[in-house]
Every structure is written in structure tokens, then in C-alpha cells.
Amino acid sequence: MRWVNVALAIRTLEARSFCTPAARSVPPRPGVVVHQRNLDNAANAAAHYRGLSSVPPAKAMVLGVRCHYPDCALMRVGLEPGATPVSLAPDQHAAQGLALAGGQAYWVASNSLMTMPLAGGSNAEVLLHSDEARDVAVDANNVYYSTYDSPGAVRAVPRAGGSPVTLLEGLVYPRRPAVDEENVYVTTGDGYVMKAPLAGGAATTLAHVGNPASYLALDGDRIYFARVGDQAAIFMVGKNGEGLAKVADADPGASHFDVAVDGSNVYFTSTRGVMRLAKP
Q: What mean pLDDT do residues 100-108 have?
């Protein structure tokens, strides 16, 4: 069994111009392992330990999709040593993508957007049938999903159900989107960080880091995101596209890293597990 798409939830149940600036230098600092699972292939742990999400701190747990691919299940496990995983939703075929909001979990399985309560106790429900959805994000009103393709897109569908609306398109393998009150943000397989208005409108390039960019996390007026490949690293940039900087080196050569934030720290996946780094 492997953990794929794992949400590190520091949470309460009811949480709620194309200029590319040059990066400035911030001395990279080592991270601290805060959670680690024994995976089938330790050398590829980062490729199977993903889907981090973060909401206001209260207590810590991990919510994730555990797979003997393509047979998967939505699991919940505490961060305390020796915690036993609990299956919330078994039989989630080829599950991937994971987001938390308002006491609900959202993910992709069996060519559908799925949802169920974090506390368990009820069956998973289909929010939208889609054979193109890959990674998901959520806010008070909508679920946002990317189509991992080239060209790919980012679309939104109401949490109550309905027809999807395209917010960004023409992207090279977009990763999981993230949203704030005004915009949707996404990284791409050709190294860009992009945003577009939730209300519709033109996309804006915020940063370009050469190698493919992996997942991102929003934090106030900042964005934290990962670059993969031989020069893997964690970066930050302002939501206005200013202040691009590297904040930590990461495991070179890994296919992707996930990123999450809370009030004090940045978390990211690595071959050693989930790493914690104090914010710059």
C-alpha cells in the first residue's frame, strides 16, 4: 500500500502584465520531519506522499488516499506516533487530488469529483462526473479542478452541484489550483505560476522558474510553491508577482513536491516524509 494524495490538516472541522521578476537570494534552510510513513519505495516517497492542505491550527491529523493502485481508499490518521489509519471511503478507483473545507473532503476517483464528511459516518457522494479532473481545491462556494493535460485548464463547479465554468485554459499540465477571495492560482509543467480572476478575465503570470513547478499554497499576500527536477526547491512570491525568492532546497530529481502553510511554518513533502520550515 502507498499513500498518494495526503492532506496534512492542521485544522478545525469547520475551517474555513506578463513580467517575470528575478529571484532574490534567501539562504535555504533545512526542514524538520514532522510526519513520516513507511512507503513501498522509500526512494520515491515524495512521489506518493502528496496532497498537503492547511487550514487554521487546532489539532493535527493526516487525511489521505492510500492505494495499491488502482484500488484506493480515503484514510484518516492522527500525527501521534503509532496512530492507526481509519478507512473513511473504500473502493475509490484510481483516486487522486484531495482538498478540505467546511468539514468535507473532496477528491477525484472513478472519473468523478467525490465528496464526504471528514468525520466519516456516511457514504462518499459524486459531485460531478468528469473524465478530465485531476487535482482539486475548494472554497465556500465552489470546487476547482485542473485537467492534467497540455493544453490543460482550471475549471470551477458549485459545491452544491451544477455545470463547470472554465477560468484558465491553454496551460501546460496544470497542477492543483488554489483560491482566495478574488483569484484562482495554479502552477504549470513548464514552470509558471499563474492567476486569473474568479469572476472571469485574463490570466496573469506571477513567476517563472524554468523547471516544472509543482504544488502551491497561499498565505496572506504570498504564494509558496515547489520547483521539481535537478534544482528542486521551495519558493515564495507575492500575489502581485513581486519578491520571488527561494526559501529551501528540496530533494533533487523528485517528480513533485506538495506544499502547505499555517501561521508559523511552511510544510513540504520529501523522500523523508513531511518537512517543516519556519516562514522567512
A: 85
Q: What is the pLDDT of residue 36?
A: 36
Q: List residues bridging with 32 in a β-sheet.
A: 276
Cβ neighbours around 130 below 10 Å, total: 17
Q: Is the dihedral of CA 108, 68, 38, 89 positive or negative?
A: positive
What's at 39, amino acid-wise? L
Q: What share of the chain is helix, strand, coil (3-state, %, to 5)?
A: 0, 50, 50
Q: Residue 230's CB: how many other CB atoms inside 10 A? A: 7
Q: In whole angstroms, what is the distance from residue 185 CA to residue 194 CA?
A: 6
Q: Which of 14-28, 218-232, 245-259, 264-278 has the lowest mean pLDDT?
A: 14-28
Q: Which three cell numbers stand for residue 218?
A: 497561499
- For cell 492522527, the residue is 78
pTM for the model: 0.76
Beta strand pairing call for 204-208 and 71-78 = unpaired
